[in-house]
Write a structure and sequence with these properties.
With about 325 residues, the protein is an alpha+beta fold. About 35% of the residues lie in helices and about 25% in strands. It contains twelve helices and 15 strands. The strands form three sheets. Strands 5-4-3-6-2-1-7-8 form an eight-stranded mixed sheet. A five-stranded mixed sheet has the order 9-10-13-11-12, with helices on both faces. The structure holds adenosine-5'-diphosphate and magnesium ion. The site of adenosine-5'-diphosphate (ADP) has 21 residues, from helix 2 and helix 5. Keywords: DNA damage, DNA repair, Endonuclease, Hydrolase, Nuclease.
C-alpha cells in the first residue's frame, strides 16, 4: 500500500504549495474559522497548519492517514457535490508517504488531544497523548526526504514560498469568513482577518489584490435563472498593472476556463478596445448539476452543460457593469 501511496503522491504532491492546498482544504472541510499556516524554508523544511475545526477523534487518526479512508462521503448526500468538491481521501496518506508527518487533534468530545506520527515508507503510525486545543494541527517536515529526485526538483525557498502565498491568496478569496494567517521562517507575512459583512469584503480584496485594484475596479452583481455572478472587474489602470490578477471561482472553486476568459476578453474589447489586459475577481454560482468539474487535483477545469448561455450571461453582466461605470 505504501508504494500506491507514493504513486498517488506523485499526482497530489508536486511541491510544498500542493501540500498547503490539500491541508487548507481539509481545514475548511472541518469547519475551521481560523487557520494558521507556518512555513519554514519555503516549505521544504516544515509546513505546519493549525485549525480550530471539528478535530479528528483518537480512533480515527490512523484511518485519516490511510488511503481512501475519507469520512466525508457519508456526510454528503449528493454524489455530484462530492465529486465537484474533489473528495478523494488520499491527500494525507500521499503526503505522509513522502515526508515526516505529525497529525495532532482534539475533538470537542475528548478531554485530551492525541497525536499520530507517520514517516515515509514504513508508515509505522504511533499514537501518543498531546497538548492541543479543539481542532487539528498537521505538521509536514522534510518533504520529499525519501524521494531525492523530487527533492532536487524543488526551486529556491523564495520561489516555493511564492507558490504557497498564491495558494493561500486563492483560498482566502474563496472564503472571506475564515481568518487565515501565513508566516515564513518565523515572521508573519499575511493576516487576512475574517470578514463578517459584505461591505467589509473590500478590505480583504485590498489586502490580497492591492489598493490600486480595489480603487480602479467596478463591482459586478447579476443573476439570471440559476446563474449568479458577483465580484470585481478591473478598469484599465487596474488591469494594466496587474495582468496576473485573474481569479474566477465557480461554486467556490478557483477555475481557469476558456469560455469565461473569452467572455471577459470580449467585454474588454467591446468597451475599452485599447486595453490588452484584464484583471478581475469573479464568483459564479450555478446549479452544480449544470457543471462537470475535472477532479484532477492539479487541474482547475469546468465544463458547463449550457456553455452558450453561461458565456452570454457573463458577457452581459460584465458589459452592463462596465457601461454603467463608463457613463
Ligand atoms: P479527504 O479530504 O479527501 O477526505 P484526506 O486524506 O485529505 O482525504 O483526509 C483524510 C481524512 O482525515 C478526512 O476525510 C478527514 O476525516 C480527516 N481530516 C484531515 N484533515 C483534517 C482536519 N484539518 N480536521 C479534521 N479532520 C481532518
Ligand atoms: Mg482532503
Amino acid at each position: 500500500p505504501q508504494l500506491a501511496n507514493q504513486i498517488a503522491a506523485g499526482e497530489v504532491v508536486e511541491r510544498p504549495a500542493s501540500v498547503v492546498k490539500e491541508l487548507l482544504e481539509n481545514s475548511l472541510d472541518a469547519g475551521a474559522s481560523k487557520i494558521e499556516i507556518e512555513i519554514e524554508r519555503g516549505g521544504s523544511q516544515l509546513i505546519r497548519i493549525r485549525d480550530n475545526g471539528c478535530g479528528i477523534a483518537k480512533n480515527e487518526l490512523m484511518l485519516a492517514l490511510s488511503r481512501h479512508a475519507t469520512s466525508k462521503v457519508a456526510c454528503l448526500a449528493d454524489l455530484e457535490q462530492i465529486i465537484s468538491l474533489g473528495f478523494r481521501g488520499e491527500a494525507l496518506a500521499s503526503i505522509s508517504s513522502v515526508s515526516r508527518l505529525t497529525l495532532t487533534s482534539k475533538t470537542a468530545q475528548q478531554n485530551e488531544a492525541w497525536s499520530a506520527r507517520a514517516e515515509g515508507r514504513d508508515m509505522q503510525v504511533e499514537i501518543q497523548p498531546a497538548a492541543h486545543p479543539i481542532g487539528t494541527c498537521v505538521e509536514v517536515a522534510d518533504l520529499f526526504f525519501n524521494t531525492p529526485a523530487r527533492r532536487r526538483f524543488l526551486r529556491t525557498d523564495k520561489t516555493e514560498y511564492n507558490h504557497i502565498d498564491e495558494v493561500v491568496r486563492r483560498i482566502a478569496l474563496s472564503r472571506f469568513d475564515v481568518q487565515i494567517k501565513l508566516s515564513h521562517n518565523g515572521a508573519l507575512q499575511r493576516n487576512y482577518p475574517a470578514v463578517k459583512t459584505d461591505s467589509h469584503k473590500n478590505t480583504r480584496i485590498q489586502a490580497i489584490c492591492g489598493r490600486q485594484f480595489i480603487e480602479s475596479s467596478i463591482m459586478v452583481n447579476a443573476d439570471y435563472d440559476n446563474i449568479k455572478i458577483t465580484g470585481w472587474l478591473g478598469l484599465p489602470q487596474a488591469a494594466r498593472n496587474q495582468n496576473d490578477l485573474q481569479y474566477c471561482y465557480v461554486n467556490g472553486r478557483m477555475m481557469r476556463d476558456k469560455l469565461i476568459n473569452h467572455a471577459i476578453r470580449q467585454v474588454y474589447e467591446d468597451n475599452i478596445p485599447s486595453e490588452m489586459y484584464a484583471a478581475y475577481v469573479l464568483f459564479i454560482e450555478i446549479d452544480p448539476k449544470q457543471v462537470d468539474v475535472n477532479v484532477h487535483p492539479a487541474k482547475h477545469e469546468v465544463r458547463f452543460h449550457q456553455a452558450r448561455i453561461v458565456h452570454d450571461f457573463v458577457y452581459q453582466a460584465l458589459h452592463k457593469a462596465l457601461q454603467q461605470s463608463l457613463q
